[in-house]
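Researcher: Next entry in the queue.
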Amino acid sequence: MLKSLCFFRVEAVNIPQTLKDSESMDPKRKVKICPPGKIAAGPRSIQSVARSIWEETHVGRGIKTLFKLNQPKGFDCPSCAWPDPDAQEVSKIAEYCENGAKAVAWETGYKRIQPSFFEQFSIKELAEKSDHWLEKQGRLTQPMVLEENASHYRPISWEEAFALVADKLNQLDHPDKALFYTSGRTSNEAAFLYQCFVRQFGTNNLPDCSNMCHEASGKALSETLGIGKASVTLADIPEADLLLVLGQNPGTNAPRMLTSLEKLKRNGGKIIMVNPLPETGLIQFRNPQKPWEWVGKPTVLHDLHLQVKLNGDLPLLKALLKMLLEADANGSNNVFDHAFIQQQTSGYEELIRHLGTTDLEELIVASGVPEEKIREAAELLASGKKIIIAWAMGITQHRNAENTIREIVNILLVKGSIGKKGAGTLPVRGHSNVQGDRTMGIWEKMPDSFLDRLGKAFSFNPPRHHGVGAVGAVEAMLSGKARVFFGMGGNFALAAPDTAKVFQGLQQCDLTVQVSTKLNRSHLIHGKTALILPCLGRTEKDISLAGPQWVSTEDTAGRVRMSQGDLEPASGQLKSEVAIVCGLARAVLGKDNPTDWEGMTVDYDRIRDKIEEVIPGFEQYNRRARIPGGFYLPNGAREGTFHTRDQKAKLTVNPLPAYLAPKTPFTLMTIRSHDQFNTTVYGYDDRYRGIADSREVVMMHADDMQEYGCKAGDRVKLTSIFEGEERTLEGFQVVPYAITRGCLAVYFPEGNVLVALGNRSGESQCPASKFVEVHLEIMKP
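Model: Structure for this entry, 781 residues:
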């Protein structure tokens, strides 16, 4: 529970809830409010990149590295998972976006955290610092240990660190008492070995960041289309007649997408934006790679904005389907693709009967969108032959997320917009290689077919009972069922929902281990004993006894490509993620374990040979990954083949949930700022939204402010209520914003304190961070 503006207390440790660049953090600091931006990217984006390079790293080093970013013979961006163009179409100048450049500058910075840093600062003192300050201290340079009851981290050798982890793990009375978390940045090679080690240890407890973002997409798409991935490639987007973007902010979370949208518009395509907020990245765009376009009129991207209520997407989609059905019944230009429906789908009759029982007026009211705008969207859908629907966490982070995604699929299927050029599904993954991790087996419930092949390849019998996901991991720590937490990257303490409970769970562990490049909150919210294991970054050389090594990643479109850094490592003490996993596996599993951990540490080709042996689609992996641009994995939905039980795509019935009408005056969602990637905050200015100098803000409609007697800058108390439990966030400043009435927005991860663990999808267990029922109260000065 947040007690004041800056701190909330968990087990007597003060944790700054705000993110400020100052050590002292002034609770009176005021937000600056400007008009929201109207044009995305352009010269201001280049200025922002230049400033980041200047502040974080040596200019020459930074510029040199950017020329390698997303290049066929360079390294894959450590930021988002947006796909690269084909090798022959890659820009030789700048195949990256503003946030990707900032991520590189952040990783390649000149600052270093030496052991003397931990001698200077105790855990208590570090806990008083902001999260921004922690990461600004620079790269971690050697393994550190915090022993039980100690106040400071101290250096430890790699051998001692591995032995410590092995001792703690092997003392557990069951392997399921250990949790092995993975963030999206882990390479295919490291992720594959990691899950193999964990399963040889004896558990499927492999929670990952997918559990908190696109888990719902994977479940709904696998059920309806036979594959839980996007069915389109980058080349499909400009070919579409119509693109719907739901619950996504491309200008901030996948800025390179804007170039594809620009091409679509110039080809005559239309774009519909569905979002409770008007987002600059979908309004107008100046391509930063084309200076000759920086004068004159920018490219207008969206043709229609449907400003839904929070979680109004499902009734909106259902209303659109009902209008399309009506138009098709009236013989309006064959709105439905009946040949496709008959030959390639099942469930059509049930869907039509269900639509007949729904009330259009009720659907329109529930969506929050005026009827005339919905009808305008329906007309665009009716006339379009090639339709792509893209979405992100504004869709997936709801209790009914799977129903909404299945309704997206329904629209595409009745239009025949699956398995053809310029048409299909586009769940936009937010973290580099988060999709590759899942392909490699980072999942708590991999199918038996995968486990059979894994066991055969490594001569062991993998555990078959399902493990726990991210939310389940927190519950396991709270209940004492889990005693060891191992984090392969990421910042679990801040990324997971229900922050106070996450902190409590981590602090109840006997051991917490974090594989990291920089200091973050998860190093300070620790178990009785804690380890920091520093690893190489994507930009750095990975040299083994056999010479330079490279890794591979998978993007949103399912393309696998190689990635190889060329910078000298930040420290001679750093190990690659592969070397960390292999060293740990040998220490834990013992010298008699038959897996060739040492050989795979030296030669990553051996890892890829094993991946090829276990995972379909990776035939001739080593050869094909070396081809510039890499290769695409098989994708049945893209090819018009549906790997479902009856080999047909599923049209489904998706009832509206009862909780669309909130019991509180407001519903709240968490969002990211433009100067942020996941839990990493590069600065305090959200220039696209006109918010500067503070992240402690609540975005609120001006009419709601007037009704509640709020003024811009007033500090308020937010109270969320879920199943009788209250959570509070105090002292945030009100900012007038053109958000849907009755809806509020706060930044992630600050807003996670309001998201209950139990507020999640019953199907995928994905947290409902985009639909939190809250009360608002103005605080006295």
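Model: The first strand starts at residue 7 and ends at 10.
Researcher: Noted, moving on.
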